[in-house]
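Section 3.1 - Work completed
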Amino acid sequence: MPIDLAQVDWLYVAMLMVFAGLASVVGNLLSFNHLGRAALLTALAFAAMFVFWAYYPHGLPLPTSLAQKTPAVTTAPAAPVAPAGPQRPRNPVTDITPQAR
């Protein structure tokens, strides 16, 4: 079989089935058994439910976010970089010979 069923996120599939079923019920109720209108309303209801589930920031753990997580790689902080050359002193006096009094 070309589809590896072990890799399928069954929770995600189940949620899409629930959304499609609810969208079908809503579409049929609102269309008064007109098939064309029922199909259009079902598609619109499904799109609204799916967008709400996938993109609204409601804080629920989404099945899509579980599949896209990658293991975090921790790296050690980088060592400070040594200066390229000697730095000039900030003191404007460069002559260090003692002065006669």
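Second construct:
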Amino acid sequence: MNSLRKVCVVTGARAEYGLLFPIIKEINNHNSLELQIISTCMHHSPEFGLTYKEIELDGFKIDWKVEMLLSSDTPVGIAKSMGLATIGFSDAYEQLKPDIIIILGDRFELLSAASAALVARIPIAHIHGGETTEGAIDESIRHSITKMSHLHFTTTEIHMKRVIQLGENKENVYNFGAPGIDNIINFDLLTLKEFEKAIDFKLSNRNILVTFHPVTLEKSTAGEQFKNLLQVLNSLDNTTIIFTKANADTDGRIINKMIDEFILSKPNSRVAFTSLGQLRYLSAIQFMHGVVGNSSSGLIEVPSFKVGTVNIGDRQKGRVRGRSIIDCEPSTKDISIALKKLFSQSFRNSLKDVTNPYGEGDTSKKIVKILSKKSLHNIIKKKFYNI
């Protein structure tokens, strides 16, 4: 009889898999745990780079593939994709019979994964709970997953307190920092020469990395906001721009089309990638003057490199941030002012003593230690914890 605890990791997107990578590796190497992986959503879309192959190239076996993403980024299309995902996860759990599910973050496919696990009476361990992103539907999804989960691994003390405030037992809430920082410490990052070869593109003396996603609680603002950003970027002289494309959120395809058109005018100084992968992405940051857009990575991982971030608009509103973050409105005027500050020598000098509020690494080992030792007996019967 197999006495190993079956820990099932759910992943639906390239960026989230990168954050889960050190945890997956720790589980895989643990002598009392059996790793299971379910891949879904963007991992299986040709449009988003078929990134499930990256999981396999890393040497991990995918135990189940949940095909669910329709070729539509409308609210109706995404809602239908969520329905298909719930059906797919139900089948996966029935066959794999995991002892516990790991979910990181707040994407729509993860709400389906959590809902199916809840009905199947499978405990859920949730990572990055208690955070706030007031401009995105992720805000509501994240808190919903928290209430469906049984173990919580938060990234700051503020987030830990919020999870407890939501009624979760403090004995099941652990504040270990962000697992993505482990990659920064553990990866053998590429040298400049290696990085340029890996992306087949030459950097210049001034480089920026741009990642912009739709603000999903605002109707049809993606095109207008990104147009303003591109207008400012187009006015920059002697600047190399690397884009990582938007994900499968509502209106994401609008942004990606605009990126493709933008790089055509100056292909020698602009380049775009559907997926850089975690190694190339983290390697890129060390050579950047700054990261620009509205991705959570700009707030969570980038400060560890002592590199500045221009955070545009409300998508990450409410999230804990360090001193390296420059917040601005999505207007051409405000973006221009923010970029001017980003490039200023005084701001760049101030980054030398920046600390990352999301921790200093070693998060994955701590999480997996709890996953291996914590009793799951009766854990699904939760009492509301009053503070």
